[in-house]
Automatic annotation (TrEMBL):
Name of protein: Glycosyltransferase family 32 protein
Lineage per the UniProt record: Eukaryota, Fungi, Dikarya, Basidiomycota, Pucciniomycotina
MF GO annotations: transferase activity
Residue segments, region Disordered: 1-28, 824-867
TM spans (from-to): 124-144
Keywords on record: Membrane, Transferase, Transmembrane, Transmembrane helix
Organism: Rhodotorula toruloides (strain NP11)
Length: 929
């Protein structure tokens, strides 16, 4: 093959240079067929390398630097591609082609770009360094330009809803003008009490919204009643800081080339939105707290109007800023007075709790009743606000801001009397001091039989919140304390399939079932009737009550992260079928035990394959949980908070302290998905009829009714509305999550959970902590703990029943009887307890395999053929555990068992709650309390 051929050579001769571009084959040369294929492939590759890539490659030339000779005498070289224009063999761009570098001992070898072996001079070394550095700078600038170009393309594509490769499609359905109005309305409503950043969208800028403002846009001034008005001292410090910044910019302008007065002005106007605080001033509570743990045995309740500054909390707790959960919890419990500080010195930088205050000269003009009614009407249909004319929207924003400021000033207008509000129709049982715009409601959604999980969540609510349970039953504690605003726990029971329709008997049957269930029956006691409410969930009724969900019956009802369940038109078809069959008396229409009339075939069009069995389950009696109900709950949390306000809690959440300070923070929030910058909506706080809620519903409807928290994270990010739904650190509500995912294990909080199962099955090496430290040693400082499902693991295996004392003995006996009957059913046939008489024959309720006194079955029941003890719950009426011994209990109690028993001891009246308040079981009007 000729040496001048463009095809590679395959001759493996000793003179072949190891740096040659041709491939080298060791051993015998390849066959002609193989050589031809390889040569053709190289030829095609060179031909295909044309276009911009080839032109880009033509800019470079190899610079071969000799490295001496190897032991075998062969030449060693380092080949580096450099820009042709800077190659030492070429003249410099600014020098004459005939000019040479004096003293240059480099000489071009016959091989192009090769430097001779002779010792190079200083000029040659400078040329080599210049070529290398210049090439590196060229590549760096090219890479940065490419990244910026790709970023611009992706940003333009997402803003214009273009589906680009390797990116999630944009979920944005709002226009820039609508996004701007969402921001303005929420700020005017006091729902943005944060200084961490200004709104990230452009205001009053053509083409703005969701992006950066234009360079020539004027600064937009927005008044924020959610932030405290700046005092003269604050303004003076702000002017000093601004003057210092401008001075430094001038100093930099005097040194840096090309930076003048215009550049300083452009830098000074970088922020196009100026948020002006106009709300009440804040008086931060000093720490250590007066009357805290150093002065009494129990921590003090937060002041009724105290609020938590979540900006300050983020400074101490933000995982993105490398803050540790352990340190965050210390700051939180010191501010809450949960313990006396051990650290000496000033704690000013740790203060997070404040009380709003207003000077005596402050005044606010409240909107008229007509304007209040107008604002309330618009709250029910936020689309009218976002689509109003510019002048009408400006008037509404002004009225909304005036209403916000007047509401905040209302407690100060008359200092002798606490404010009295008119309850909203959605929450008529609220105390007079409860602001209807900010109802104190906890929502829990539950499907299937009531178990120990919602039972424990409800008991934690009774144990930690300010409910005035120390007053007699039937009395009104607000007469003694007019400022009292008791939170309420609304437990939403979903008795039937998702597409069930309202039935007048459903409510009655739900309450009958709850009264028969040992876990829920105690919560129906009159002691808790003012604070614990059971509500019937009906998907049809709830979705019909949300104006943004119009047309939901023709959609795929269930969508979780893009995975859809059900079929289009499911609810509509089910409604028609149920109506027709109910009229004709068709037997296929089922009236289930919960009273929900539905069609079994249409109401649950779920997968029928064996691998999809978990989708057909109802309840949580095993590790195969009801996935469909979980997907429904993703939507229910937004429906409930948007219709009624308050906070949604997953039923696998345990409250750990008073939430007064969080109630008085009037923004919306969820918390972080562990290490990811996504939302976890196991805790979700939103205001009733808010603009951010309207945005989420409209966006979800346009994206297939997907309310999965990961998808909601995309909604807010695409619209640049993340600031309106604050993503709090999970240290506040889920302090073990980072540890379970192998983060912060060098400094974990107390207790140290490596798995979420450690809550139920505490490892032996830390098994002494639950009993030794009790509730006081469980993530002290956090507001709640989320144990992430595990519905199939009991809280207290050895006492898996409601242990609330003689007052609720009937339900306890039933629950223990069911456990005992289950143990009897698992015994061998020869150990049948139905033959037991007298005081012998049954296994122990707490020790399987041991015999204890089991009463004989009633005669009239025992005569039935095939009857076994426990088939009828009347058998449980004669059970007696009075001789139960403490030795029969398990030795190492888990954290779950300790928390459950602590709550139950409070309800029994054997210990006070977290804040030293004893429950009162006396009736109002009795002679003795």
């Amino acid at each position: 093959m000729p040496t001048h051929s463009p095809l590679p050579s395959f001759h493996n001769t000793p003179t072949h240079s190891p740096r040659s571009a041709s491939p080298t084959f060791f051993g015998s040369p390849p066959s002609s067929a193989v050589a031809e294929k390889v040569a053709l492939s190289y030829q095609r590759a060179r031909a295909a390398s044309g276009g911009p890539f080839r032109r880009f490659g033509d800019l470079f030339q190899a610079l071969r630097i000799p490295l001496g000779k190897a032991q075998n005498g062969s030449r060693r070289e380092l080949s580096v591609p450099v820009l042709k224009i800077l190659h030492p063999s070429r003249p410099l761009p600014f020098a004459s082609s005939s000019s040479t570098l004096r003293g240059d001992k480099y000489k071009r070898s016959p091989a192009i770009g090769r430097i001779a072996d002779s010792r190079p001079g200083l000029g040659s070394l400078v040329r080599v360094l210049l070529a290398l550095i210049g090439t590196l700078l060229f590549l760096l600038v090219s890479a940065l330009s490419s990244i910026k170009l790709v970023g611009s393309i992706l940003r333009i594509g997402r803003n214009h809803n273009y589906n680009l490769p390797f990116t999630d499609p944009s979920t944005l359905v709002f226009t820039p003008a609508e996004i701007e109005r969402v921001w303005r309305w929420e700020i005017a409503s006091g729902h943005y009490p944060s200084r961490r950043s200004t709104p990230g969208v452009s205001f009053d800028v053509p083409g703005g919204g969701g992006g950066e403002a234009a360079a020539v846009a004027p600064v937009v001034r927005i008044e924020n009643p959610g932030l405290p008005k700046r005092t003269e001292e604050d303004l003076r410090r702000e002017r000093e800081v601004k003057a210092e910044v401008q001075r430094r910019l001038r100093d930099q302008a005097g040194i840096g080339a090309g930076v003048g007065a215009d550049s300083i002005l452009a830098l000074d106007k970088k922020d196009k939105v100026e948020v002006v605080p106009v709300g009440p001033t804040r008086e931060y509570v000093d720490i250590p707290l007066k009357g805290g743990r150093q002065a009494q045995a129990y921590p003090p309740r937060p002041l009724e109007r105290a609020a938590i500054d979540l900006d300050a909390v983020m400074d101490h707790c933000d995982f993105a800023e490398s803050k540790y959960v352990r340190d965050c919890l210390e700051v939180l419990r010191i501010n809450g007075g949960l313990e006396a500080p051990l650290r000496r010195g000033l704690h000013d930088s740790w203060r997070t709790t404040f009380v709003p205050t207003i000077g005596s000269s402050a005044s606010a003009s409240a909107p008229s009743d007509r304007m209040r009614d107008t604002l309330e009407r618009y709250r029910g249909d936020m689309s009218q606000v976002l689509n109003a004319s510019s002048s009408a929207f400006a008037s509404l924003v002004t009225a909304r801001q005036q209403l916000t400021v007047s509401t905040q000033m209302n407690p100060f207008m008359s200092r002798k009397h606490s404010p009295v509000y008119t309850p909203h129709p959605s929450h008529p049982s609220a105390d007079p001091a409860c602001d209807p715009d900010y109802p104190r409601l906890f929502h829990i959604f539950w499907a299937g039989p009531f178990t120990d999980k919602p039972y424990s969540a409800a008991l934690s609510f009774l144990y930690t919140q300010r409910l005035a349970l120390d007053s007699p039953i039937g009395s009104d504690p607000t007469h003694e304390d007019p400022s009292l605003c008791r939170p309420q726990l609304w437990i939403w029971i979903n008795p039937g399939p998702a597409s069930s329709f309202p039935d007048p008997r459903a409510e009655r049957r739900m309450r009958a079932d709850l009264a028969k269930n040992p876990w829920s029956a105690p919560l129906l006691h009159s002691r808790f009737k003012d604070v614990v409410k059971f509500r019937l969930w009906n998907t049809t009724e709830q979705l019909d009550g949300v104006s943004e969900m119009k047309g939901w019956r023709n959609m795929r009802l269930f969508n979780s992260g893009g995975v859809k369940y059900g079929s289009a038109g499911m609810a509509k078809d089910a409604e028609v079928a149920v109506a027709k069959r109910a009229e004709s008396g068709d037997g296929e229409v089922a009236d289930d035990q919960d009273g929900a009339v539905h069609d079994q075939k249409i109401a649950a069009p779920l997968p029928t394959k064996a691998k999809d069995e978990l989708f057909e389950r109802v309840g949580s009696s095993a590790n195969k949980y009801d996935r469909l109900s979980v997907v429904l709950s993703d939507m229910a949390r937004f429906v409930l908070t948007h219709r009624f306000g308050g906070v949604y809690l997953d039923a696998d959440t345990i409250l750990l302290r008073d939430w007064t300070e969080l109630w008085n923070w009037h923004g919306a929030f969820a918390y972080r998905w562990s290490r990811l910058e996504k939302y976890n909506t196991a805790v979700l706080k939103m205001q009733r009829g808010s603009a951010i809620g309207h945005f989420i519903f409209r966006t979800a409807v346009a994206n297939g009714l997907d309310f999965h928290p990961m998808t909601v994270s995309r909604y807010t990010k695409d619209a640049n509305l993340e600031g309106l739904l604050l993503r709090l650190p999970d240290a506040l509500f889920d302090p073990a999550w980072l540890n379970t995912e192998y983060y912060q294990r060098d400094r974990p909080p107390q207790p140290y959970f490596k798995r979420f199962e450690d809550f139920f099955d505490t490892p032996k090496d830390i098994g002494a902590a639950p009993v030794a430290t009790g509730f006081d040693g469980f993530f002290k400082g956090a507001f709640s703990y989320h144990f992430h499902n595990f519905w199939w693991i009991p809280f207290d295996p050895s006492r898996n029943f409601p242990d609330l004392g003689p007052r609720f003995q009937s339900g306890e006996r039933t629950a223990r009887g069911r456990l005992l009957a289950a143990k009897l059913a698992s015994q061998p046939a020869g150990n049948d307890a139905t033959t037991a008489t007298g005081s012998s024959g049954g296994p122990s309720p707490t020790k399987p395999g041991e015999t204890r006194g089991l009463p004989s079955p009633p005669t009239q029941i025992a005569r039935r053929e095939g009857y076994k003890w426990g088939d009828d719950e009347r058998d449980f009426a004669e059970l007696d555990w009075s001789d139960e011994r403490v030795e029969e209990d398990e030795r190492d109690l888990s954290w779950a068992a300790v928390l459950k028993r602590t709550f139950e001891a409070y309800v029994r009246g054997e210990r006070p709650n977290l804040y030293g308040e004893w429950i009162n079981w006396d009736e109002a009007g009795a002679d003795e309390y």
